[in-house]
Amino acid sequence: MSGADQIREVFWKHMARSRLEDEMTTPNALPTAHEGRPPGHGGEAEVPALHLRRSFRWQALLRIAVVIAFAVDLAVFPPSEQLPLSVVLAAVYGLWTVATLWAAFGPHQPFPNWVYPLADLTLLTALMAVSGNFSDPNWSSPLSADIFLFIPVLASFQMEPILTAASGVLAAASYAIGTSLGHMQQPYWHFIFVHTLFILVVCAGCVLLSDVQQHRVRSIRELAEHRLWLLDRIMAAEEREQRKIAEVLHDGALQNVLAARHFIDEAACGPEDVTDSLQRADEALTAASRQLRSSVRTLHPEVLVSGGLVPALEHLTQQASERGRFHAEVHAAITTAGSADRPLYWLARELLENVVKHAQAKNVTVTLQKNNSASVRLSIQDDGIGIPPDAMTRSLSSGHIGIASHRARVEGMGGTFTLHANSSGGTTVEAVLPLE
User: Among 237, 359, 363, 372, who pairs with 355 as Cys (CB 3.0-4.6 Å)?
Assistant: First the structure.
């Protein structure tokens, strides 16, 4: 990759991270992902303010429908009692609607969540009581029967199930008590009971909907946080890899090249030792070329491109067995996995590297075979010291994302990734990827 390509890659990663941070900014404190652990652990994430603001705006717009219902009801079914005061209360609720719109679409901080359903319930109950709708002997106005259904519906936009439940119960109680007291002389208990029950049923539906929406936006929030956290870890891992390659080149190949140059200078200055100096320069350059070839092979698996997946796995396994001093075997029932060759190669490289570093194994078996007609399975089994059940979690917490990133890649391709301890000791890791 050229220097310009690297700059562009870092730039776009920085832009993606900045965009995620902007989208996730809320007025409240956010749980950060920079404390050595992935997000989503140690506490439930809050509902993002972006979703709350959008829901609050829709709630404010829906309140306009309530005002329209007032106006239509006052025109079609004029209040039987205290018409001027009823109009005043309807106007007050209209002003309250304007205030909620101002708070929703303006730069100002909204009121606490509980204020809105309480104000709605208070004003609507007062309007029903003053206008005589609670005591209408003809039961002619649909407003008293239906207006309280808006209370839990409006409250559900807050995405707080408890608040929605409390609002709905209070709305049902206001309707039942007000209508019962207003029709004490000529009660219609069956209608009151059934409609109160209907309000509670609508309230239950709003509570469930509010709970579903709350969990949905929290899941989106956690996924966004985890993506940002993983992006940070990936960039840190890239920096570590670049630093490691730089150290290898500096301490290995570069030193040999400098030594060769020194020997060539000696040969130029001292003709009597030309042969010996040139021989040492040749040895230094040979060692440098070997080290550079190894570094290039690490960055770009030439054997995978030229020979295919099976020779590449055999080459990886041979190198790992030499460094880890264990016996290794490769069993391959297929020659290629198609587009899955490269992901399987890098996964095997990561897993074999972990075996070398941590397993203390004596025997390792790498198996590549078809899982069924539509998928391929890669299995790496060792007889080492095993792996704790929470190893991946602790590895993520410490900032090592090697296996986790490969697992995410496998699952992102529609495959499965499993890691488990063997009954006889050691560990088996299996990855199943679909075949194209």
Answer: 359
- Contacts with 149 (C-beta within 8 Å, 6 or more apart), sequence order: 171, 199, 202
Kind plus residue range of the DSSP H or E element containing 361: none
Instruction: Give the tens place of pLDDT for each residue, 258-295.
Output: 777 777 777 777 666 677 777 777 777 777 777 776 66
pLDDT single digits (tens) 176-195 = 888 888 777 777 788 888 88
Residue 253 has pLDDT above 80, yes or no: no
User: pLDDT tens digit string along 220-231?
Assistant: 878 777 777 777
Task: In whole angstroms, give the CA distance from residue 346 to residue 57.
Answer: 48
Q: What is the DSSP string of 30-99?
A: PPPS-SSS-TTSSSPPPPPHHHHHHHHHHHHHHHHHHHHHHHHHHHHS--SS-HHHHHHHHHHHHHHHHH
The position carrying tokens 């020997």 is 263
Q: Is 152 helix (H, G, I), strand (E, B) or coil?
A: helix
Residues 163 and 155: their CA atoms lie apart, in Å, by 7
CA 251 to chain centre: 40
